[in-house]
Design goal:
Helices cover about 80% and strands about 0% of the residues. By secondary structure, it is mainly alpha-helical. Helix 2 packs antiparallel against helix 3.
Length: about 140
């Protein structure tokens, strides 16, 4: 009896952790925006886009930066995550103030999109950073 070969081929362009969560998020947000545009609610579509833009960008950049860090101690990794979260809060706070003072952005769809995207991206970021953090902890245990 011969061996059974696996029909699954490796991806030609493997996605890093940041892109694995970026692609579905862009697709879902894009479908929402297209749906709103098709129903002639372009103001709501812009508000959804404005609410999604910053959480998607910040989490992708943070995850990309963290995955590139090598040989971090646990304290360094913890400090990176703390500073990343503080920067995220400051940027999002400024973004909310900017959008709230704009008369062209409907606040309810903006805030809804912002909260949904922030929570989803924050949880996804935590999920993808956890294995990287486990490597940091195991490397530090081996060194001691």
């Amino acid at each position: 009896m011969g061996t059974v070969e696996n029909d699954v081929q490796p991806a030609v362009f493997p996605l890093n952790n940041a892109l694995k969560i970026l692609v579905p998020a862009i697709l879902l947000n894009g479908l929402t925006i297209v749906g709103l545009v098709l129903t002639e609610r372009s103001g709501f579509a812009m508000a959804v886009l404005a609410g999604a833009l910053l959480p998607v960008t910040i989490s992708t950049i943070s995850l990309g930066l963290f995955s590139q860090k090598k040989n971090l101690t646990f304290k360094q990794a913890q400090a990176f995550m703390l500073y990343s979260f503080m920067a995220k809060m400051i940027l999002i706070g400024g973004w909310v103030v900017l959008m709230a003072t704009s008369e062209n952005v409907p606040l309810i769809p903006f805030i809804s999109s912002l909260l949904i995207n922030f929570l989803a991206w924050h949880m996804s970021e935590a999920y993808h950073i956890r294995p990287l953090l486990a490597d940091v902890v195991s490397e530090n245990m081996e060194k001691s």
